[in-house]
Amino acid sequence: MNYFRQLAIAVLHPGDGAGSALDRNNGIAVFLFAILPGLSPNFNSFILLASMLSGIYCLGTARFSLNLSKSDRLVALCMWVYPLVMIASIFMNPPYAEELDWIFRLLPFLSVWLILPRMRQSPDGRLVPLFILGAGVGMIATFFLSLLQVALLMDRAEGGATNAALLGLIGVLFSGVALLNIQSPNKVEQRIAILGYAAGLGCALLSGTRAAWLVIPVHIIIFLWYFSKHRLHWSRRSIAITGSLLFLGLTALSSPQIIERIHKFQENLASLEKSDGDVTSLSARLILYKGALSAISKDPFTGYGPQNRMSAVLAEIPESIRQQVSFTHVHNGFLTAGIDAGIFGMAALLLMLLAPVIGAWRKEAGPGRDLALAMALLLVTSYVITGSFGIMFNQKALDPIFAYMVALICADRGNTRFAPVVRSRRLAFEHG
């Protein structure tokens, strides 16, 4: 309990001075933002919107200046291109339908230049460890909620996300972020890192999201790169044993969902070979991909606008099966961008996905850049891999997460050393 009392002090009472109120609010916002995605992702949208409005107010009242570096402006430009291209496609492709709603959905991608100066009011090295710790705490809580849902005989866990596929992406992303805290010298934070990683993977497994499972080996490669460069306070043998035991336990716990999803995939493959006209999850995706490619080839430059997305795709699909594939997107983020705004939409999407990597890579060399690059790679690979088989953007939960993490990745300098959230006197002395 002593640790959590110290944690509350670290979050709520970070220090004295003129900027302490902003710093405290930043810490609370970042910590909650990392905890909430698997429990209630809609609150992430509220946090992002509140941070944007606060940024506008503080900039307007000169409480702090915009003060963006060349690297910040480049990242903001990479983020801005996508919404601007999509807004242009909306007005270039009548008939119009709920165009204001579509534009409002794009606002998170314009938020970086508002929330980044606000984040910079906190000392370097304070917010990122809070986010990493919050990710672990959030995944542990989400895992118990997901476990309860499975115990209540839900086919696939959804957590608080109300969507199994969304929980799969959140689980695999935030579990990866949580594990970065294994480098903390604080033993409680190390345990939260291990348990948070295991819990997040458990959420991904219980969700039955096969695309999220594909992310796991890619993240392991990222971890091998990152942790090989930085000293760990656990022995590698202890990590290997603990990790193996947790993985075996999670596999045993999630085996019904794993077996059922593998069996379902095998059935889908078998139905493709039979060609009996039945539309399965797999065949529906293939039908949508073909329809999307056909539509893009007919209008490769301007697309059809997001408001006309599925009508354009369905027009390329045989009428006899249209009702069986009536989704809101084509289950591939790149093809969705191509339908919405043609090749310019796809190029803008690629540029936005590169934004966090660019922001991390352009920092000065040091441990802060390594940590930022690890977070950027975890973020981008999670979205690209899961988004290649499902939804990537234009989603009220996923868009704020991406935008907020991009700003957070840019916030610290490259030479900033990682520090635990709760420091003992000895650790405070060692970290200066």
How is this structure best described in words?
This protein has 432 residues and is mainly α. It is 69% helix and 0% strand. The radius of gyration is 22 Å and the shape is globular. Mean pLDDT is 86; it is low at 425-432.
What is the topological layout?
Elements lengths: L1 H11 L7 H16 L6 H19 L9 H23 L6 H7 L6 H8 L7 H25 L12 H16 L7 H21 L2 H20 L6 H39 L6 H18 L10 H6 L18 H29 L5 H21 L10 H14 L13 H6 L2
Helix pairs in contact: 2-7, 3-6, 4-14, 6-16, 7-8, 7-9, 8-9, 8-10, 8-15, 9-11, 10-15, 12-14, 14-15, 14-16, 15-16
Portion in beta strands: under 5%
Global shape: globular
Q: What proportion of the residues is helical, as a percent range?
A: 55-70%
Largest sheet: none
Please provide the ordered H/E string of secondary-structure elements: HHHHHHHHHHHHHHHHH
Distance between the termini: 26 Å
Strand tally is: 0
Low-confidence stretches: 425-432
User: Which structural category do the helix and sheet elements fall into?
Assistant: mainly alpha
* Multimer state: single chain
Averaging pLDDT over every residue, what do you get?
86
Give the radius of gyration: 22 Å
Number of helices: 17
TL;DR of this structure?
This protein is mainly α and 432 residues long. The protein has 17 helices and no strands.
Features:
432 residues; 17 helices; globular
